[in-house]
Amino acid sequence: MTDRASQPQPAPPAVAAPPRALPLKPPTQPRGLVGRVKAKDRPVALPVPARKDVHAFTGPEVFDRWSEDAAGVRALERGDNVITMFDVIGEDYWTGGGVTAKKVASQLRAITGPVEVQINSPGGDMFEGFAIYNVLREHPHEVTVKVMGMAASAASIITMAGDRIEIGASSFIMIHNCWVLAFGNRNDLRELADWLAPFDQAMCDVYVAHTGQDAKTVAKMLDDETWLSGSQAIDKGFADALLASDKITVDENAKSEDRRVNELRGMERSLISAGMSRDAARARIDRIRGARDAAPDPATRDAGASGLSALLDNLTATIRA
Question: How confident is the model at residue 107 (pLDDT cuts 50, 70, 90)?
């Protein structure tokens, strides 16, 4: 009789190895958390166009609203780690100022820790705003953005570079699609519209990343040109907290200057919208300024007033056309 123990036994049925656990996705840092932030944890960089001849502007009506609601608004407190953006985005022909990526990068090099960005701007060149956003997101420490009066258009993109965003109760954030001035036939304009689409999508992605809103919702807000008050911005995720009212003041001198220069910026945009080139619009406005600033010699006052009147009439006709 054969011993069963000495006989080869059938192999046990194969048992499938337990599935490997998927690595857990590291938790994302909650919006508004104060602490060390690494640039690589922020949203991806925004695309900056290689075509330097195309500029995305802020419309004249935005300058009008900034003059009425936010001109002269400033912060009461300043510090060595503060970068202020109380101007248009991009180089400004009318003042020689403006907020540029080059200037912001230079300021950031002198700040070795957390940085605070104070904004009150109607926007300007959207693509310069993209570049400034990229500069801020590469800062290796926490970036706090404080909207003092308005962060419209390109300035709203810069705002999204903040790891924490604070906004005044009576301040505004405005978002819209890239706004350009273009001329040409239907094929030219169709080509330009297609060229702009990736930039609008990139903006949408950045707003979605910060707010957690649905992409279709944000795209509709961009299409509609949406203005958000302080509480609305927080409710929709565009900001994290309200600024204390005692942190904001109105500088009357700055307010007067903001409004004066804004009249020139708005007039320039209106002339360009009417079909005039930017250089021609600026030249015409400069002629009007020259007539206005002419010495009020009694012997020449009437002639100067007549010349100014003619220039203003010509300007009005151009805009209406």
Answer: very high
The total of other beta-carbon atoms located within 10 Å of residue 10's CB is 5
CB atoms within 10 A of CB 270: 18
Write the CA distances from 6 to 3, 10, 40, 227, integer angstroms.
5, 12, 65, 86
Mean confidence (pLDDT) of the chain: 78
Provide the β-strand partners of residue 85: 119
Give the residue among 235, 253, 233, 33 at the shortest CA–CA distance from 144: 33
Rounded to a whole number, what is the distance in angstroms from the first to the last CA of the chain? 116
Task: Find, among 159, 131, 134, 143, the residue nearest to 228 by Cα.
Answer: 159
Q: Where are the alpha helices (DSSP H) in the chain?
A: 60-69, 101-109, 126-137, 154-159, 186-211, 215-224, 230-235, 252-273, 278-292, 298-320
Neighbouring CB atoms inside 10 A of 293's CB total 9
Q: Are strands 143-152 and 82-85 parallel, antiparallel or unpaired?
A: unpaired
Question: 3-class DSSP state for residue 71?
Answer: coil
Nearest CA-CA partner of 257 in 101, 107, 94, 123: 94
pTM of the model: 0.72
Strand partners, 124: 89
Is the pLDDT assigned to residue 320 strictly greater than 80?
no
- Distance CA(215)–CA(201), nearest Å, equals 9
**Gap between the Cα atoms of 188 and 185, Å rounded:** 5
Q: Which fold has domain 39-253?
A: 2-enoyl-CoA Hydratase; Chain A, domain 1 (3.90.226)
Q: Do 262 and 63 form a contact (C-beta atoms < 8 A)?
A: yes
**Helix extents (H) in 184-297:** 186-211, 215-224, 230-235, 252-273, 278-292
Q: Is residue 262's pLDDT more than 60? A: yes
CB 113 within 8 A of CB 81: yes
**Residue 14, pLDDT above cutoff 70:** no
Exposed/middle/buried for residue 50 (C-beta within 10 Å: 0-12, 13-18, 19+): exposed
Dihedral sign of CA atoms 207, 210, 215, 221 in order: negative
Do 31 and 129 meet the contact criterion of CB atoms below 8 Å apart? Answer: no
